[in-house]
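Suppose a colleague, Dr. K., hands you the sequence of a protein chain of 129 amino acids and asks what its three-dimensional shape might be. Before reaching for any lab equipment, you can write down a predicted structure in token form. Begin with the sequence itself:
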Amino acid sequence: MPRLVGVAIPDNKQIGVSLTYIYGIGLSLSRKILREAGVDETRKASSITPDELNKIKEIIEKNYRTEGELRREIMMNVRRLRDIGSWRGSRHARHLPVRGQRTRTNSRTIRGNVRKTVTSGRKPPATPT
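The predicted structure, expressed as tokens, is then:
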């Protein structure tokens, strides 16, 4: 299993798809990186030579923010929004959708799969045993 930027990428998949296991690299960016490195994206990750692996690693480290650095930057951006008291920051703090989506329905992703059903306030009478 080759390791790039501290992540073990699966070697039984194509290298174009394997690179997407790194946080911050999607399919289009992985294709762009492989084109720049001169590696065919349909090859399996296990068949990549160490020279090609080093070339890919250098391109990623030199040009793109990934993994811990990117997560830290996103966390700092959200913290800044909370500190200045913006609307988006308050939505982040309450774990609600940030970009204007409706919340009456369809906000299960951010709020978690908490389904609360509303019933009448009365409990049914106890049945005699």
